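I am writing to request your help with a piece of structural work I have in hand. Thank you for your consideration; the sequence and its tokens are set out here:
=====
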Amino acid sequence: MRFSAPRSVSPSPVRGRPRNSSTFGLQSDSDSEEYESELESSFDDSDDDAVSIASSTSSNSSSFLLVSDINKLSLRPRHITRTSLEERQIEDTIAAIRLRTRHYDPYEEWEKETRKDSFKTARKDFSTAQSQLHDAHERLRRADEEKRAAAHTAELAEVKTVLDRMRQHQQEVEKKLMDALKHREKQLWNWIEAAIKLEEDKATKRLEEERKVREEEERKRKEAELKRRLAEEKRIQEEAAKKKAEEEKKRQEEEAERQEKEAEERRQKLEKERREQEKELGELRELLNFAPPDEDWRVARTDLLNVKSNPLKFVKSNKQLKATWGTIRRQIVPKIGQLTNDPAAISRISRQLIEIIRPAQGPQHEPAIYFAACSSLAKAILLQAETEVTAEKRSAAPLAQVAFTLLDTLEHFPSIFCAKLLQRCGGWLIPIVVPGKDVDGRPWTDKDERIKVSGIRKSTSGEGLETTEEYSNRVSAIMRVYFHILKIRPTEKPLHPMFQLPRFWTWFARMTSDTRLLQDPVAPQLIYTGLDVLGLEAMDIWGQQWIKMLALIHEGVTTGYDNGNVIGGLTTEGAAARTRVLVALENIMNGVQSS
């Protein structure tokens, strides 16, 4: 950084003429070099004086009568002699040199002082500028610190506000959770009290039965005691008076005959009442289409055998009919596979399937082809259920909607579909334990035939039959579609009795009343499936009776039935399914709709 040095106020000395050379005849350095070079040359005056002395001798030879070689001025050797004039000239020359080396130039001194003053003034201005710059920087730093402090205060206030909002939101969430917990706890206590009341009623009933048994035993004991007393009295009377004994014996025989006659009359009366009650129940079952489980199994099994032995056998034996049937099957399977949970797609695919089975235009299929096509259609729906519903339970609803439309439209399809359900699920459709004989009274030929009738198939993951878990998942997928069909309400006419909503109650009533079914590991999984599909709607339909049914199921999966036997047994599959049943029961009691 260069500062301009002002000139001193002191007057500059005036020379008569400009001095272009030094006293010794050399060009002055101060006249030809820059300001910075002049400052450096001031420190080299001693060197320049020496050079000036040497050069002045050559340039001003007219002023001094000296020899041209300066070495001649040195002390002479002893053998050299000079004259007094020479000695005097030498001394004058030396005196002149000394005088010239101590020469004082006022102008150069003024320039030197001027430079010092300029540098001093520049340093003072520089110090003042630096101080002002430092003050400016300090003011900027303080302003920046104040700005940062204000920003920090604002951010701190904003953070406090956000924390307050979060704390308030957390308190609201905790309050909602506590309210929900209290509500759930209240519901659980209500349910527990209901279960306790049910247990108390059962205990009261058991105590009442025990009291009746004791009273009956007491009555028998008293009768035996009376007989012994009468016999003793009779013996005493016989010993006392034979005639009186004979009369007493005759009287007792008459009394016994009379009692036997009265007992026979009571037995006949009870038998008559039983027959009348059985007749009334039969009429009620016929009116409500409510048959016993073995009758339902017999009807479905008979339909299955009829379909296999008549139309299917006939179609397979005829090449032309078999080819037509194969074409229909190849049209059915892709349609079922294209089904999605879209009302438009469901309606479209249903119409297309009906058109395939029962063409609206052109000739209708022969009866054998029609029955075979219905059988293939039912099988395709069930196979789709086994594949898709096992992986995603929500795919059961559209499949059930298509099946419902076909059941409501196609003639004889309900019976065929029910038969195919029995074939794939065994007795779980009814539900019933598979009997030991076929519908024609013929015992099963071997164990493999009974296993096949029970719906157990070959394993898809390896050799042999499917495991309990595979069988349970497959059957529960089919039953989920079946329960969804029961859930749909018909708009025009009722469906086949096997596909009406009361079958849901019948299914659970039969399941809970047969301990052989409850012992199977598949039972809790199917119970969970039914509760998951229709459990909440069933409460709206059957009300308190359904709650009693749920309490019975809860008892079966927790404390157990029949000496502590739990539903599903002690298998791993049964334990996992019981857990799902408990979750479904809790959702139903809390009014939570299954996803």
About this structure: Residues 29-103 form one domain.
